[in-house]
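Re: weekly structure request thread

Next one in the queue (116 aa):
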Amino acid sequence: MICACASPASAAERLPDGVYHCEVYLLGQFLSLGDITIRGNVYTEPAYFTAPRQGYNYQIETNGEISWLGPLGGFTAGGNSISLTQVTSFDPADASFDIIMRQPHGAFTASTCTIR
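Done, posted below.
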């Protein structure tokens, strides 16, 4: 029997461990949306205060789409939701992903998160 099932991204298609700085270009300037830390298949959401952050799992599909299996700070607060997160580079030197966020009133905002 042959299975044509979709499988998660291979180890070669894994985001490198590190801190990813997220920014959005809004009103003519870049605004920081915080840092997401990734270690293996666990991430910690952006922290805006000094409280310890909890880790949550995430997974990457074969098409490079990231599924966050927990909250994502301000990206998922106040009526905001994640429409799509797409890996744009797996290269350890410049690993990055884009987060497309839908705001409560229906507008979309794109944020780029790049490894530091």
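The CA atoms of residues 13 and 90 lie 6 Å apart. The first strand starts at residue 18 and ends at 26.
Next request, please.
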